[in-house]
C-alpha cells in the first residue's frame, strides 16, 4: 500500500507526540498495571481528553480502574476479554454503593478504545481515551491539580469473553484505593501515548496489594462456603430428621447437640461472610442479604428450642415457642440451601462439577428433610387424634361410672 507524504508526516508527528507524552504507571501486583497520561491542554484547562491504559494477565476474569476515593460515586471502567477472546471490552459504570456497578448507556463516560488494545501473549490491554472524565454524575476530578484519588479492583479466574457492556461481574478478590501523582502524568498532545511502549518518561509506582491478597480471600471464601453448606445441607436437616424418625433413648439430647454444633459453625461462617461482604462492598447483593436474614432468624434459635422442649416436657403438648422454633428452623434451612447456590454463583470460580454436586446433595437432603417434616406432622396429628379419642373415652367412662354409682 502506498503512503502519501501527508500520512508519513502525520504518522511521524504522532510518534513524536507519543514519545514526548508523560505516562505515570501504577502496578498493584499480579501483573496488573494502570497507566495515565494527561495532555498539556487538559492539564492547563482542567477539561479535555485524558488517556489511560489497563493491562492484566488473562488469568483475571475482569480488571477495573475507577476515579474517586471509594466505590460509591466512582467513575469506573471495567475491562474483560471480548467474545472472540482476541479483543477486550471496556464497560464504563457508575459506583452507586456497596453493590455491583452497572452500565447505564444514558449516563456513562465518553470513551474510545484505541489502537494497541486487545489480547496478546496472555495479556489483556485496553488503551482508552476519555473525553469527559473531568466530571461525572456523582463526582469530578481536577486534572490541573497535582494528584487525584483513584480505586482499582480485579477478579481472578477464567476470562469472561463477553461483548456485553452489562455483563454480570463476580465479586472482586483484590481491591484498593490510591493517590495518583498527576505531575508525573502531564505532558504530550491529544494522541495515543501508549503506541510508543518504551518511553523514557514513564514513571512507575506500586499501589500496594489491596485489603486482602487473592490467596487469602480465596481461603476465606472456601472456608465460608464449606462451613455454611455443612450447616444447611447436612447438619440442620439431619438433626431435624433425627428427632422425628429415631426412637432411641436420649434422641432429644443428640438432636440438641447436633443443632448447637450447626448453630456454632454457622455463626463462624456468617462472620467470615460479613467480613468478605464488607471488604468487597457487596452488602447489597442478594446472597449477603439472605445470609443476614437467616442469621437474624436463627441467632436466638437455641433459646426458642430450650423453651419448646422444656414446656413440652411439662405439658406433653406443643406451645407457642414450639411453633416459633419449628417455623424458624424450617424457613432457615430452606433459605440456607437456596443461598448456598447463590453464593456459588456470586463467587464465580466454582467448577461446573462442584455446582452440580452441590445441587444434587442439597436437593436430596432438602427434599428428604421436607418429606420427613411432613411425615412427622401427619404422624403427630394422628397421635394427637388418638390421644383426644382416648381422653374422650376416659371421660365418658368416668361419667358412666358416676351414673352407675348414683343409680346403685
TrEMBL record:
Primary location: membrane
Annotated Cytochrome b561 domain residues: 188-381
Signal peptide: 1-21
Pfam assignment, any one: CDH-cyt
Compartment annotation: Membrane
Organism: Zasmidium cellare (Wine cellar mold)
TM ranges: 221-242, 254-276, 288-307, 328-348, 354-375
Name assigned to this protein: Cytochrome b561 domain-containing protein
Annotated keywords: Electron transport, Membrane, Signal, Transmembrane, Transmembrane helix, Transport
InterPro entries in UniProt: Cellobiose_DH-like_cyt (IPR015920), Cyt_b561/ferric_Rdtase_TM (IPR006593), DOMON_domain (IPR005018)
UniProt-listed PANTHER family: CYTOCHROME B561 DOMAIN-CONTAINING PROTEIN-RELATED (PTHR47797:SF1), DEHYDROGENASE, PUTATIVE (AFU_ORTHOLOGUE AFUA_8G05805)-RELATED (PTHR47797)
Record has NAD as a keyword: no
